[in-house]
Amino acid sequence: xxxxxxxxSRETDAAGAPKLRGSLGxxxxxxxxxxxxxxxxVIGGPVPLGIANGNGTGFPFTYLVxxxxxxxxxxxxxxxxxxxxxxxxxxxxxxxxxxxxxxLGAAFAALLSYLALEAGVFGLFGPGVGELLQSxxxxxxxxxxxxxxxxxVVSALGYFNINLSGKVLGVxxxxxxxxxxxLDAVVVAQGGGPEGFSTGIVTPxxxxxxxPGFAILFAILSFVGFEATAVFRDEAREPERTIPKATxxxxxxxxxxxxxxxxxxxxxxxxxxxxxxxxxxxxxILTTTTEAYLGALGGHIIQVLFVxxxxxxxxSFHNIASRYFFALASKGVLARGLGSVHPRxxxxxxxxxxxxxxxxxxxxxxxVLGLDPIDQFYTWLGxxxxxxxxxxxxxxxxxxxxxxRTERARVGLWRASVxxxxxxxxxxxxxxxxxxxxxxxxGESSYGPFSWGILVLxxxxxxxxxxxxxxxxxxxxx
Length: 478
Fold this sequence. Notes:
This protein is mainly alpha-helical. The protein contains 18 helices and no strands. About 70% of the residues lie in helices and about 0% in strands.
């Protein structure tokens, strides 16, 4: 961790707001946002669910569709980057394109989404650590004890310079991706599974079979976090070059990895049985498949790296949520103390503490109320995040189209209008799919208190935008 910038602890932006310090390059930002997507966690979680409840052996193709739509979104998102000089990702773009009130509404919605997801993943992390330790003969303990230990480590890392988190996430990400790549290579080298190579990914009848809308739901959730590249603008080297490059690289890496690895998982089990196996053992199919091809040692490694993948996901979203707190405070929306920069580490230390406190309250409530950590706590908060992130992608797409309407001569019709419009069309379709399937996502048979509650939360978040804009009179958000 560099300490050579101690004399620049009072750096400010053009509007006089304090700026964070860091020297993140393309690779570091890619590590952070890809870790947020939790590649191993996706292959072990949403992928089996997408196979079982979505379109079966055609599920890998769904990742290609979602990747294509998000790349279209990225064309406009990255083209508009030079026009949005403030860190803050979604809300900075929305504020620049649609006005301060809409920008603040987007900011509150984003903060709600990322805090919910960070807290919710502790509902997976705690039980995951417990199961891992029990497999080695340790006694069973409440899930929230393990969650508390992980919480303490995440909070400590969030206090320091972002470069430290970037290094930790880099190591964890390489490890979790490596084991899946080894499994992929072994299956392919052996000529596929018991039925050879799966053909579902190229068979139209399989791609549209079952419930393709539900498949899209799980696929889009697998990408949550990629858009956070712009959150780290202040801590990036040459942000106008670094942010666009990191966005494209992260999207392509995530999309190709998910599509190929889900295809290999299907191949390794066989087209005729994989749907049944995924339905019966969605939480263990990755481990059992790894053991079948890499032996017991491979299975143990997968178990360990699944837990570290969840930790990396939590750490990434902690950093993202902290920077939303920081950006809002530095603009005068929240208490200005949260917008201070640590004099030595150049980190949003107080904003990180606010994030930790919020998450601690949510996890503590889950423990006190006796919520099931996976079926209730994670599921409910994951539903909040899924609605929020896709809604924000839609709004950002609209804002980008507005921002670039006068830039067509400079950047070209494709980058200014065509690609962003196509991306917006796809994202609106995704949002409709999520709304249609939201009750199932949060464990309800139809729209009930939790489904409606999520929609009400976001309605309140956006309604607060114009109110806060008038009462707090924040400086320009863009």
